[in-house]
Amino acid sequence: MKDHPLVIKLMCVALVASLMVPIGRLAFPLVADTIGTLEFSTIEAVMSATLGFGLYAALFG
């Protein structure tokens, strides 16, 4: 897998996203009146990607 760092990065993002989606469904009703649906989805996607790439950097330096 060291020959395919993009695949590993995407796997890390998918792992984080699999945790963020259920957390997002729980958090959305709490913040729905403050921000809209599109903004919440954007924040959720950016956080998932950022944490996924951070996880990759922490594990594989």
Word description of this protein:
This protein has helices spanning 5-31, 37-60. The chain has one domain (5-60). It is built from two helices and no strands. Helix 1 (5-31) runs antiparallel to helix 2 (37-60). With 61 residues, the protein is mainly alpha-helical.
Taking all Cα atoms into account, the compactness measure Rg is: 14 Å
Tell me the distance between the termini: 15 Å
Percentage of residues assigned to helices: over 70%
Give the domain tally: 1
What is the number of beta strands? Answer: 0
Number of helices: 2
Strand content: under 5%
Outline, from the CA principal axes?
Answer: elongated
Low confidence ranges: none
Largest sheet: none
Short description:
The protein is mainly alpha-helical and 61 residues long. It is 84% helix and 0% strand.
Set out the fold topology.
Blueprint: H1 5-31, H2 37-60
Helix pairs in contact: 1-2
Features:
61 residues; 2 helices; mainly alpha
